[in-house]
Write a structure and sequence with these properties.
Helix content is 33%, strand content 10%. It is α+β, with helices and mostly antiparallel strands. Among the domains are: 64 residues, Arc Repressor Mutant, subunit A; 63 residues, Orthogonal Bundle (Arc Repressor Mutant, subunit A), CATH 1.10.10. The strands form 2 sheets. Strands 1-3-2 form a 3-stranded antiparallel β-sheet. GO terms for molecular function: DNA binding; TFIIH-class transcription factor complex binding. Recruits TFIIH to the initiation complex and stimulates the RNA polymerase II C-terminal domain kinase and DNA-dependent ATPase activities of TFIIH. Both TFIIH and TFIIE are required for promoter clearance by RNA polymerase.
Length: 232
């Protein structure tokens, strides 16, 4: 049998222990950033008939090995470990302000440790403290970047009315002005010259043959004019 094959755990001490650890991680995620003691997790996950010492130790070992969990030996408690330790609006703004480049952050990564992050994003966006991109289908936030409320300059309604009263040229007048400047419209076909220009013939360059073995020209006789006799 291959050494890479791990047989399923069938002993009573190991039945569903990995599944129980998954449930425990989910419980820690729900209570984050609160810690949960080991005894409370055991009570929440393991049924009474399966709380023997062997099963409990196996369960705690599997849970402690999970990368999404941290264990505090002094308090004998567990804490969920999200990808980013962001749990409120202040920590989100601080995280974005510390970015050297405006990379932003995906909202899905924030939800790992902050379930109701969407409400805070809506509020910060209304305060011009976040720039947000949203999904077209459900309008849920997808990405967020830092924003500066001091750059937001509200405009008086009087200025907006004056701006909207500025007349714009009609489409026909715009096309006429463009044609005067030798610009064609987008839908106008390109002009093609009907008279074909004669093609210029390329001059052939004569290249002389290169003679090799020049230093041996006087050593041999030329028999090229003498043809051998053909015997019948």
């Amino acid at each position: 049998m291959s050494s890479f094959y791990a047989p399923p755990v069938t002993d009573p001490a190991g039945i569903d222990v990995r599944t129980n650890a998954v449930y425990a991680v989910g419980r820690l995620r729900e209570k984050f950033p609160e810690r949960i003691s080991a005894s409370d997790l055991i009570t929440f996950v393991l049924p009474v008939q399966r709380r023997d010492e062997t099963t409990v130790q196996h369960f705690l070992a599997v849970l402690n090995a999970n990368s999404k969990v941290t264990y505090d030996k002094e308090t004998d408690s567990f804490l969920f470990k999200p990808e980013h330790n962001i749990t409120d609006a202040d920590s989100l703004l601080q995280f974005l302000q510390k970015q050297e480049t405006a990379m932003g952050i995906q909202v899905s990564k924030l939800k790992d440790g902050w379930a109701d992050v969407a409400d805070a994003i809506d509020k910060l966006e209304a305060e011009h403290r976040l720039l947000v991109t949203r999904n077209k289908k459900d309008h849920h936030p997808r990405m967020v970047w830092i924003d500066d409320p001091t750059l937001h300059a509200p405009l008086d309604q009087e200025f907006k009315d004056l701006w909207n009263q500025i007349p714009l040229p009609s489409v026909e007048d715009t096309i006429k002005e463009l044609r005067k400047m030798n610009h064609k419209s987008t839908g106008e076909p390109a002009r093609t010259d009907l008279t074909a220009k004669p093609k210029k013939e390329k001059r052939k360059v004569r290249r002389g043959q290169k003679i090799t073995n020049v230093h041996m020209q006087g050593l041999f006789r030329d028999y090229s004019e003498k043809k051998p006799e053909i015997k019948k």
